[in-house]
Specification:
By secondary structure, the chain is largely without helices or strands. The chain contains 2 helices and 2 strands. A hairpin with a 2-residue loop joins strand 1 and strand 2. It is extended.
Amino acid sequence: MSANAWVGSWRPHRPRGPIAALYSSPGPKYGLPTNVGYRLHDPSRGRAPAYSFGVRTGGRQEDRSPGPVYLLPPGTTAKGKDGTPAFSIYSRPRDLPPIRTPGPGCYSPERAGRLAFPSAPACSLRSRTRQGIIYQTPGPAAYRLPPMLGPRVVSKSSAPNYSIPGRSNVGAFYEDLCKTPGPCMYRVVDADVYKRRAPQYSMLARNPLPGDTTTKPGPGAYSPEQQGRRRGLTFGIRHSDYLAPLIVDVPD
């Protein structure tokens, strides 16, 4: 800028603050948020309550309360039931039965016996209960110590034991060989069991071919001698195509 250029009474100088025209960006064109209204209100400022008028909802008529149609019982005030004392007349209650406490003469201390006086122990014999029959515990005679001889010693190693079995009838010198089965007792094994099985064929009944099964006339049903005769001519009745047929049974 030129220091000698004057525009009227105003002399150009360096601006003290930012000017929007000097910048290509939007710069300080944005304003502060408003303090009026409810939406987009300045969050740093207090906001007063806002009220809105809404529309009436379309609820069903059954869901609405009937209003002051209920009849309050008599004696009910704004603060609840009336507190004036009320009296009612009832029947006379029955008297309580007297307590019959036994007197001193009702007791017999002489019959107390060993329950009230010291006495020697007395034992009685009674029958066996049913529970003792169910639970039959084995006595000392039911148990026995393991044997110390033989192969069944628990804590000792036993020596080898030998047993002498009975005489066998098979393979002995006195075996009866007559009871041995002969060759006829064995059947011949089929070769298909241990070799490749050969094809097998089966014979079925004869199946007739499909055809006409009606009865046909034989040679005796024909008359060859009548073939030389000349057939006679007969005169019939001429029928019209438009002649109605004869109806005998006429329905009512």
